[in-house]
Amino acid sequence: MTPVPEQAHRPVRDTLVSEWLKTGSTRAIWFVAGGAVLIVLAVTALTVSVVAVWEGLPQERRSDVFLTPPAQIALLPLQLCVGVLGVLAFTSEYGTGMIRSTFAAVPRRGTVLAAKTLVTGSVALVIGYVGILVTFGVSWWIAGDRSLGFNTGPPADQLPMLLASGLSVVVVALVSVGLGAVLRSTTAAVVLLVLLLYVLPMSTGYLPAPWDDRVASVMLANLHYQVGMDDFAMVYFDGLLSPPAALALMATYVAVTLGAAAVVVGRRDT
């Protein structure tokens, strides 16, 4: 009787291995990794340039220099990088027709969705946290004892926000897997992702008060501020969502998109 559980788990394990191999063999993963490196380098260069400006100012004007936390500058580009990777998890196979072979090899489509989600989420976890933490650490080191706004307190004070930012990268990747599975079009899914992360949050500023802050507070792009209890969230969102509520809403975004993907993938003919 003992071999039965092993045989039952083998398709799941084989599917995971297959998805890892497919992800590692595509150019997309290397473009995403290279993009993450370029993002870190670009933000580091920005920090260096701000330090140079600070050094060139007279003493009485140096307090006017303020740099947005470098990790936050890097966050949106990192989210877009892993978002594209998440979208391609399904759309690349739909585009080439390979999805038929995938579903023929693994008839349980929910298993395929789960495997792609787990693999993409794992990659996003590494890219997100490495990118965020390296950007933060290098920029903090470059700033040194110069007061640039983002380094006024001890580094430990930034930990909740850094953890929330890295988590948001993973959340965006998982949401993107769902979007790609539902839409099957790389262009459509990426456009919708950009709308979610950039256009819609910016558009809330045109709403009348207090709806501008209320709607902005539930946008996917703004949840990590509230999870990490950032000063930005306290000022602009007035504490509308507690950290647990913002975390629950993050999970809701993931559940809704992946739930829709499970329904669509399970019912749609390839």
Offer a concise description of the structure.
It contains 11 helices and no strands. With about 270 residues, it is mostly helical.
Question: What does the model show?
Answer:
This protein is mostly helical. The chain has a domain at 14-27 and 75-123 and 154-267. The protein has 11 helices and no strands. The chain has helices at residues 3-25, 27-56, 70-96, 98-105, 109-143, 159-183, 186-203, 211-217, 223-227, 231-236, 243-267.
List keywords for this structure.
270 residues, mainly alpha, 77% helix, globular
The description of the largest β-sheet is:
none
| Shape annotation | globular
Q: Rg from C-alpha positions?
A: 21 Å
Mean pLDDT: 90
- Can you count the helices? 11
The proportion of residues forming helix, as a percent range, comes to over 70%
Pick out the low-confidence regions.
none
> Strand fraction band?
under 5%
Number of strands: 0
How do the SSEs run, as a string of H and E? HHHHHHHHHHH
> How far is the first residue's CA from the last residue's CA?
37 Å
Structural class: mainly alpha
